[in-house]
Every structure is written in structure tokens, then in C-alpha cells.
Amino acid sequence: MKVIRTRDYDDMSRKTANIISAQVILKPDCTLGLATGTTPIGAYEQLIKWYEKGDVTFAEVSTYNLDEYRGLTGKNPQSYRYFMNHTFFDHIDIKPENTHVPEGANLDAEIACREYDELVRKAGHLDLQLLGLGRNGHIGFNEPGESFSKGCQCVDLTQSTIEANARLFDNADEVPRQAYTMGVQTIMRAKMIVMAVSGEDKAQAVHDMIHGPVTPHCTASILQLHTNCVVVADEAALSLC
To answer: What is the mean pLDDT of the chain?
Structure first.
């Protein structure tokens, strides 16, 4: 696991965007695993700027997002499909049909997860998977538990995750209690993993991810076993390391 220490959120965002853009430039038809939440927004904004300058094109890129709230359609402003469209996809030249997000509107969890696993399987191993880090050490919506997940699954969100995501809703009661998420095994099959993390509130999770034992009680700790994982973190997030 390689750690890139950055000054602050903006510096972290630029360095994360640098890694992603290099992947796209080196392999224009690459497959990217993408994340949502507030952490990657700065990296997406930087990539948009480089696209607008003509420095990078996403015309041949395919993307596969980590997760989606169960029960939300892609037109719901709180859905991750809506987030990705309005934050990133609508501002670059990626083909809409090449962007993939779990189908949150499908309430049949077994079918929704099986179909998404099949999409990712057909893509082969993702060239690069972008991750954020939950305060409790989760990646995607793979919450701490007794074992590491394999394929896409429907998960019950923990109270800490619900509280962390409540800032994006009018109140915590509106946060969905379940989500579809890419499995840990699928994430680990990516050829390269980039973990972007910022803020003092993530410091304990970062410490446990890097220095703690590999355990499903801190899902991100399994990244210690990946052969090409880069953690891009600011000073605050690394304050306990």
C-alpha cells in the first residue's frame, strides 16, 4: 500500500485526478470504478476542467459505480445515479450507455445484485477503482461485519453511516436504510485501487486501514493485501499515522 500525503482537500483532489487522468490517457478505453459522496467531488471537478481544456477525453471510457440506495430511481436527486450525472457525467464526453450504477429502483435485491455483478463480470477486472472511506472503515457500502463480501449485495446501513449521509438529505429520517453495493471481492479484483480520503474525522479509520489487522471489522483493512493500492490522503486524515 502506497500512501501519498497531501496538504489539504484541494491538493488531495488534484493528485487523485492526476492518477485517474493518467489511466485514461494511457488506456483510452479503460474501465473505471467510481465512488460517490463528498470526497471525490474535487477530483471530478478537476477532471472536468482538464476535459474542457482538451487534455483528456472520456469518449471510450466505461464506468461502474460502487453503490446505489435501494428504492431510489435515477431521477431522484438523492440517488447516486443522479449525483454522478450532475456532478461528472453530464460535463464530459462519456457515452451515457457506458456509465453503470446499480439499479436502485429494482426492489428485488437478488435480481438487482445478480444483474450488476454480471455487468461488472463482462467488463473484466476494472483497470482502476476509486474509493472513499467511511468513518467506520467501510468501502462502498460494505459495512463492518464478520466476513468480507464477495459479489454485489443488499446491505443494511449502520447508524453511523446513516448519520454521516444525513447531511445530504433534509433530515436523517429521509436517508434510505438499505443500499446495493459492489462486493469487496469485486473491488479487490481491480488492477489498481485509489483511496481518496480527507478530514480529521476519518483519521481513526485511516489508521486502522493502514496499520491495523486485516479484519472485516474494518472493511478497508483488506486493501493492505492489494498489490497496487494507493492512498491519497491529506494531513488531517493522516494525523494518527
So the answer is: 95
